[in-house]
Amino acid sequence: MHSRGIPFIAAIAALSALIGSCTASSRNTVVTLITHSSPGGGSDVFLRSMAPHLSRIMQETMIVENVEGGSGAKAMAQLARAKPDGSELYATTPTFIYTSLLSRPAASYHDLEPLVNMFYDPEVLFTAADSPYKSVKDIVEHARSGQGRWGAANPASLERQTMERLKQKAGVNPAVATFEGGGDMLINVLNHTLDMGVGELQEMRGQLDAGKIRLLGVVGDERMTQFPDVETVKEQGIDLSVRKFRGLAGPKGMPRDLITRWEMAVRALLDDPEYKKLYIADGLQPGFMAHDEYVAFVNTFGNDTAAFLKESGVIR
User: Fold this and answer.
1) Beta strand 149-152 with 112-121: parallel, antiparallel or unpaired?
2) Mean pLDDT of all residues belonging to the chain
């Protein structure tokens, strides 16, 4: 849940006092925020939008590093080897759990320390603005002809599983192409290589504002406040809803005072008026979970996802 209205100035004052009491060993001059996404992908946009505001609040320099490869496997391996001093953190989404379950990475989500969750991120289906498709029903009907082409961010992602579940619910079997990041997939929607893509609002916001893409539906339980006329997939007759989370993880063994400082910093960040304008515009829904709650959430999500993949015959 969110920070429930803690005044921003009070939160900053409390964080400043904590920072002042921290030992040098628990602070860093530079913090590297790692993402498995390619430039322009959802996690990449999320981190780069957040970094300057988080840097101001934590009084540390934040840089973003794209560690692509293996749908997050390479990024997780790098983080698992890092020192547990907070100098390297990883942007968590359901992808790092799907990658752990669908492949045999050198390091899995079990080898990382969930730090905090920040947001829930509605998934949306979209097409090129000049395509003939006006609704999810139009896309599904085209797929019945055997010529459908859909896109998702990468093979081991919630987006890919969303498309597979949509195929199953709609009774169609289009080809689903996958990419290392949402930016690459977006290009293929714009040039009509793909009929439809799935992703987060923030990674397509520029093209949406420019009138280059059209939203077809929200794969969630509620419509988005920014686009109240865009129906959910459920409202369009397909019983499908997913929920994407966005947070941060670190290496195992992070000290408690460091974890506390990050919890306080993220609470302050979510209440920062400047940053709030950005994440509301991007369609992000605050969903703060402190460390202990987030650890339990990730473990439950991992267990539930493993059960779903086994029931679907994807894994044994």
Assistant:
1) unpaired
2) 89
